[in-house]
């Protein structure tokens, strides 16, 4: 009775996962086109936030630059990893629900076979195998999407770290130059 009550919810969720897998493939294709035309959106947003952080740094009460840059990097990386975790969730959930979608109709099929209802048994078996294929397909598709996204994110994270290091070195160079100029002015007055 419990497995029969899970029959429709499991099939509905497997169907939603299949739709999500197709949606994820579309988003991957869209992101690929965007990356070819304008580069990574993640890096562009980081660059804007980096400029804001550097502007805040010039205020007297600002936190140390290295702390601000590290927080900014971690925040951007965390946002992207959350999106990747959603895809990873489907990688594991799809096959598990596909298996449930197989076993539940097989139980119904065996009950139909015991009653001699061959057409009902055949219908349940078709549903069972369709659920298996759909669940495994969702897992495979989202796994491939996750692989591509992980490669892109590694490259994005490296570019963001590089930009942060460059920005920090420029700020420190400007501060060192200001200190040197103040030192020369002081030595000239003595």
General description of the model:
- Pfam families: MotA_ExbB.
- It is found in: Cell membrane; Membrane.
- This is MotA/TolQ/ExbB proton channel family protein.
- The chain crosses the membrane at residues 6-26, 89-114, 126-148.
- With 190 residues, the protein is an all-alpha fold.
- 93% of the residues lie in helices and 0% in strands.
- It contains 4 helices and no strands.
- The protein has helices at residues 2-38, 41-57, 65-114, 118-189.
- Helix 1 (2-38) packs antiparallel against helix 3 (65-114), helix 1 (2-38) packs across helix 4 and helix 2 (41-57) runs antiparallel to helix 3.
- It is elongated.
- 19% of the residues are buried.
Please give the radius of gyration in angstroms. 28 Å
Helical content stands at over 70%
Provide the succession of SSEs: HHHH
Query: What portion of the residues fall into strands of 2 or more residues?
Result: under 5%
The helix tally amounts to 4
Query: Describe the biggest sheet?
Result: none
Subcellular location: Cell membrane; Membrane
Transmembrane segments: 6-26, 89-114, 126-148
InterPro entries: ExbB/TolQ_transport, MotA_ExbB_proton_chnl
Family: Belongs to the exbB/tolQ family.
